[in-house]
Amino acid sequence: MTATVPTAVPHPGERPPVTMFGPDFPFAYDDFLRHPAGLGQVPATEHGTEVAVVGGGLSGLVTAYELMKMGLRPVVYEADRLGGRLRTVGFDGCDPELTAELGAMRFPPSATALQHYVDLVGLATEPFPNPLSPATPSTVVDLKGVPHYARTLDDLPPVYRRVARAWQSCLEEGADFTAMNRAIRERDAPRVRDLWVRLVARLDNQTFYGFLCESEAFASFRDRELFGQVGFGTGGWDTDFPNSVLEILRVVYTEADDDHRGIVGGSSRLPLGLWEHAPDKPVHWPRGVTLAELHGGAPRPAVTALHRTAGNRITVTDADGGIRSYRAVVFTAQSWMLLSKINCADELLPIDHWTAVERTHYMESSKLFVPVDRPFWRDQDPVTGRDTLSMTLTDRMTRGTYLLENGPDRPAAICLSYTWADDSLKWLPLSANERLEVMLASLGEIYPGVDIRRHLIGGPVTVSWENEPYFMGAFKANLPGHYRYQRRLFTHFMQDRLPADKRGIFLAGDDVSWTAGWAEGAVQTALNAVWGVMRQLGGACDPTNPGPGDVFDAIAPVELPED
Q1: CA–CA distance, 220 with 210 (Å, rounded to integer)
Q2: Tell me: the pLDDT tens digits for 185-204?
Q3: Are 526 and 332 spatial neighbours (Cβ–Cβ below 8 Å)?
Q4: CA 86, CA 267: separation in Å to the nearest integer?
Q5: pLDDT tens string 214-272
Q6: Contact 90, 363 (CB under 8 A)
Q7: pTM for the model
Q8: How far apart are CA 437 and CA 444, in angstroms?
């Protein structure tokens, strides 16, 4: 199936923004979303047809919302709470406006399909206080017991600037950074594909650490160690050293780790907003219809079984004993659920897709937040003139500490620790209060004169995503050699290529996307699934606004040989 690939053309003299346009699948999802022709339509005879959507996270609710707009009837199943890993929580006994983001908390401007839905439900964003960012009053980098206070990179010792230059040299020499970044910025799909084909073939078997080691710029072990502990953008990246370098390149090419913004009032307002949002011009349904209304206010409970049944239908059994059969099912939950908590027969997916699900590698992640009386960290030491407390990057147990405020005299929050992978597992056996004590002791070594405890106005809230029963990890991170598996999962929505008895269930979610861990990937794969369901039910896109499946052959992800 082929169609013309839309290309964004900037105004003369205008430098186009970077978006998550590829590199694996350079499709302009944001243009697709804002086109006046809409995403497509299904035959009138299909209006009201039920489509199961398993998982009420962002991907599931984007899928359900767009299917509802087309005149279909999505039936959302959710095992836990709506929102998935966009999970905003409060603190017991505190102002309800004081919240903590246990899941996604920062989003890049390059996530333009995500931004479409942020704007749709009327949410505002604000700069997120990453290390050394303009939104951060100050940053302390504490390594091997030596703290360095900084407001900008230039305030740090020369070795940090040397490592920053080494990273840029490594990207340029080993991954054609400038050329790829420009091609993505200009939405030059043929150029993106040409560059990426060569890089995937060369780097699929390479770890992030191995990529650094091959660069002359990182000949020094000390420089590699420091880079791992401090990293780029959001902080240290040594927890990603064993992962495929392709995962890292996707982040840096698309500037996914730059200029982050948070959602005012909490990220969970986005999925909950979609649940309650009435489309302007729904097909088939009366004006004012919402997902909440179609579901009587609450989604169906957890799915316990998925089986193929007569007539190429898929039968869904839920935790309340409900049994319904569907011609189309979109599965947006964590993919390992198909291996453990949901009873599935082998015939549900092609065998190569089962292998890809089984080989999916998930990263652990932990956070702990505390509420405080005010942003006391802005108090200045009368002797040094420095902030009392700073956003902190360290090689101690806490790793990353973030300071989150809502105004100079209002209660605030501190993310005392944000960790990934092995650093997250270190916290797993500890209760919230045990974690708090270790974190306060660790930060006390960096800030010996600061009594954080006296500013606390409530107890801690914490999460270890690897211990959450419906997630079993924070996000997917491919290992070397996993490109072929990821391609199978991402392209699953192209079901014309599958046998008839393997069609009808569509995989979506950020772990199916090329940008796992980023909400943009959840949105993009949801839109792929919407296209797939529409096609399954005999629908099509308007010729002036081809969908991801219509242009697939022209921009399909690189296909590596398997023999």
Answers
A1: 13
A2: 999 999 999 999 999 999 99
A3: yes
A4: 6
A5: 999 999 999 999 999 988 667 778 999 999 999 999 999 999 999 999 999 999 999 99
A6: no
A7: 0.95
A8: 10
